[in-house]
Design a protein that fits this description.
single chain, 77 residues, mainly alpha, 3 helices, 0% strand
Length: 77
């Protein structure tokens, strides 16, 4: 009736879980990815449960800065 279908809302936690489940990787790589997912989830805090589209490039930049401030080389982070 001329009404757009509702947009599916996906949050970071669901997206990252589904993404990781779809990867064909070794257990060690999976554990490494899961650790980084957990780090970013912690960085987002409660926003990890909000619409994925609310994550901004500033969030990503701040996460990268937190990694480099924590001692990681920029290329590793």
């Amino acid at each position: 009736a001329g009404v757009e279908p509702p947009r599916k809302i996906t949050n970071w936690k669901d997206f990252s879980e589904n993404w990781l489940d779809g990867q064909r990787i070794s257990d060690g790589t999976r554990a490494k990815y899961q650790g980084e997912i957990n780090n970013f989830t912690g960085h987002l805090g409660v926003r990890a449960n909000h619409d994925l589209r609310t994550i901004t490039h500033e969030d990503c930049e701040a996460f990268l800065k937190s990694l480099t401030d924590g001692g990681r080389a920029f290329t590793t982070a």
